[in-house]
């Protein structure tokens, strides 16, 4: 039933045709070009790296929640169901708030807020040994993750040029889907050795450090709102951007002047 609702929503979207420039070559060359393009745009690098760290450190708390229910809170199946439902309550609440107020906020602000709430939620999950605390933590985890995922996903789509969209999204997808099982494997092993609370608390503390570090660097986070699309990146040996690549790592180009110089740009 949930898929039907999503399909109906997609059918109501007003679409438009976009002229796509197809590369003259395929294979390893296009992959290197995509990597070079990603590395030349600070916002794309930030999104891929930060989301990978968040997923690696924070998302394993979700499968580990059954261990919390059984070993830490010592509750039954019904209470465990309520614990996992709290995750959905947080996510749905964040979705409603984003729908009502998200348009008035920069993606950098939303990402910073989401990471902060998510980090605090994961840390509280490991720190507080009572069931009620777990409920509150799961609500924060759900709300924080929905907020940061929405901000970063939107940034990736808005930042990337049409020519590189598929390649950049594939790199982003591999980073997310690869970080989660690796983090779950590592935290599962550590939880067996030192206990699930210590494992999740340390992961949450590392996420709090990441959130504070990002909050203290607003200029870096501002790259998530940079919509100047460098259309081409020259590549040197090893797929690294050459000196001819746009200087997006040091300054954000004037978007308006760039569009005036390219009248056919979307």
The helix-and-strand class reads mainly alpha
How helical, in percent, are the residues?
over 70%
Q: What is the CATH topology?
A: Growth Hormone, Chain: A
Shape descriptor reads: globular
- Gyration radius, in Å: 21 Å
How large a portion of the residues is in β-strands, by DSSP E? under 5%
User: What is the second-level CATH architecture?
Assistant: Up-down Bundle
CATH superfamily: MFS general substrate transporter like domains
| Secondary structure tally, helices | 11
* Main sheet record: none
Classified by CATH, the class is Mainly Alpha
Distance between the termini: 36 Å
Q: Please, how many domains?
A: 1
Beta-strand segment tally: 0
Instruction: Report the average pLDDT across residues.
Output: 82
Which key phrases capture this entry?
266 residues; mainly alpha; Growth Hormone, Chain: A; 70% helix; globular
Protein architecture, described:
By secondary structure, the chain is an all-alpha fold. It has one domain (33-226): MFS general substrate transporter like domains (Growth Hormone, Chain: A, Up-down Bundle), CATH 1.20.1250. The chain contains eleven helices and no strands. The chain has helices at residues 2-11, 28-39, 42-58, 61-72, 77-101, 107-127, 131-159, 165-194, 196-215, 218-221, 255-261. The two termini are 36 Å apart.
